[in-house]
Amino acid sequence: MAQAASKTCEICVSGPGHNYCEQCDQLFCDGCKISHLRTKMTKNHTFLSDPNINPEVKQYCKEHDENFIYYCTECSTPICKICVIKKHKSHDFAEIKESTEGIKAEVKMVIDMKMRNLQSNIADIDQGSNQYKTDVNGVIHAIREVGRKLKEMIDEKVEGLINTVKKKDTKNVQTLESVGNELKTALDKAKEQQKFYQDTQGIKDTTKLLQKLKQIKSQIDQIEEMQVPIIPSVKYAQQKATEREIEKLFGELTFG
After folding, report:
1. What is the DSSP string of 153-192?
2. Where is the B box-type domain (predicted)?
3. Among 33, 186, 195, 253, which is disulfide-ready with 28 (CB 3.0 to 4.6 Å)?
4. Which H/E stretch holds residue 67?
5. Could you give the C-alpha distances from 179 to 110, 185, 224, in angstroms and in order?
6. Looking at residue 115, what is its pLDDT?
């Protein structure tokens, strides 16, 4: 186990040990680090290099007083080399750093997917709302034009139909805005978790990083994605007729 107090290389026991091998849990001087990385079995080991590195900060298995070096995928927990033999012998496990990288990538993927879905739904709401408002304006214009041609005697009917459209429009717009606001709120929550995720980039302790990533993933999973409602539509079936057929001329309003 690395001795943080001595700060000397644990290989040659002479040079300053400011290079910490995460796999071997030992301090190396610059020369021994180079030799370590040239060795076939240890060439892929990773080092933390800092004059003030303190490997004792790492969290240990409380039961066996050993470093967490593996991650049991079946139990979703970090384990030490003794835990592997005593409690997780038949389980699937991998190096804790490898597992953390996998969960890190998974959390990023979940965040990205969640944000893409929310942004896509908001875009659908905005696009549908604009088209719907255009349809409403077109229907109102058509009704006014028919009313104008049918003289003053049908103004009351014209205004009645317009009011019907506006009332329905108000209700539909409120529904769309409500869903849109909820989606935006969900997006804000996703952005907040994205910020928390970005903040994890500075965490060196893999166990703490694992715990933080699992918390972020849990919060992301709780963000509800409301389905985009069917975008309402409105049409006006215009007809031509004599003055005696006023009621029929106005056609029928339909809402989707």
Report:
1. GGHHHHHHHHHHHHHHHHHHHHHHHHHHHHHHHHHHHHHH
2. 4-50, 56-96
3. 33
4. strand 66-67
5. 22, 10, 12
6. 92
Superfamily of structural domain 59-91: Classic Zinc Finger (3.30.160.60)
Q: Which fold has domain 1-57?
A: 30s Ribosomal Protein S18 (4.10.640)
Residue bearing tokens 């989707």: 256
Residue 95, φ and ψ in degrees, nearest 5: -60, 140
Question: Measured between alpha carbons, how far is 61 from 66 in angstroms, rounded to an integer?
Answer: 5
Task: Tell me how crowded residue 141 is: count the other CB atoms within 10 A of its CB.
Answer: 11
What's the one-letter identity of residue 115? M
User: Tell me: the pLDDT tens digits for 112-159?
Assistant: 999 999 999 999 999 989 999 999 999 888 888 877 776 777 677 778
Three-class secondary structure of residue 26 per DSSP: strand
**pLDDT (tens digit per residue) in 92-102:** 777 777 766 77
Nearest to 147 by CA among 137, 139, 158, 136: 158
Between the alpha carbon of residue 87 and those of residues 37, 64, 67, 72, 207, the distances in Å are 33, 12, 16, 10, 19
